[in-house]
Write a structure and sequence with these properties.
Blueprint: E1 9-13, H1 18-29, E2 33-40, H2 47-58, E3 63-68, H3 103-118, E4 122-124, H4 140-153, E5 160-162, H5 170-179, H6 203-215
Parallel strand pairs: 1-2, 1-4, 2-3, 4-5
Helix pairs in contact: 1-5, 5-6
Length: 223
């Protein structure tokens, strides 16, 4: 990641998960002032919003905005429609039912609006194109297209989207969290918690467990 210029700021999309924490941590290490943005889209559980607040504090964010946006009005995803079950039979090929239609497009648009308002030049998002669950809005082509759109949709342009994890395995991300001294035990990744505990079988839980195992580390969230 390029080093920030003096005073340069980044709006970091903070979900409360491991990936967004590490992306934010790398932006902070590069010298960016951090503005943390969390979208409360009325997702399936509130635990990740609590985790997002912890992560924003860990990143020394100058401000943490939690933006309400009720995507249950649209539905179309197991994360926004209680009638659609979160699958627990392993990571399958194709786009899963946990994909929220156009979520990263919506989230990055909000981040872009805030960035323009506060004079930030960078947006940071923890998308990953290797160990991901088939989401089309985690691909490099999407990021490049959005960055191009941001250049013509704003007053002065010049925005860059920071995606430091896009080519990293989940194991590498776990190792990066440890290197940065970030407490992954404060994050939350599970799509379908049971009585406040991770389910252990959703795609997100499986990918995180696989990553930590391959990294030879113990997930602090399970300690």
């Amino acid at each position: 990641m390029d080093k920030a210029k003096p005073g340069e700021a980044a709006v970091v999309l903070v979900s409360g998960g491991l990936d967004s924490m590490v992306a934010g941590g790398m932006a902070r290490e590069a010298g960016y002032r951090i503005f943390a943005l969390t979208i409360d889209y009325n997702q399936r559980h509130r635990i990740e919003l609590e985790a997002a607040a912890r992560v924003a504090k860990m990143l020394d964010a100058e401000r943490h905005v939690v933006m309400p946006l009720d995507l249950t009005r649209f539905g179309g995803s197991a994360l926004t429609d209680d009638s659609i079950a979160v699958p627990g039979n392993g990571v399958m090929p194709g786009i899963p039912v946990t994909y929220v239609p156009a979520r990263n497009t919506i989230f990055l648009s909000l981040a872009l609006g805030w960035a323009e308002a506060v004079g930030a030049t960078r947006l940071a998002i923890g998308v990953n194109a290797l160990d991901y669950s088939g989401y089309p809005d985690c691909r490099p082509e999407f990021i490049a297209a959005f960055e191009g759109m941001a250049g013509v949709a704003t007053r002065e342009g010049g925005f860059k989207i920071l995606t430091p994890l896009i080519d990293m395995s989940k194991a590498a991300i776990a190792l990066e969290a440890a290197r940065l001294g970030l407490d992954a035990g404060q994050t939350w990744s599970c799509y379908d918690p049971q009585n406040g505990r991770i389910c252990g079988i959703c795609d997100s839980c499986r990918l995180r467990a696989k990553g930590y195992a391959e990294a030879g580390l113990t997930d602090p969230a399970l300690a």
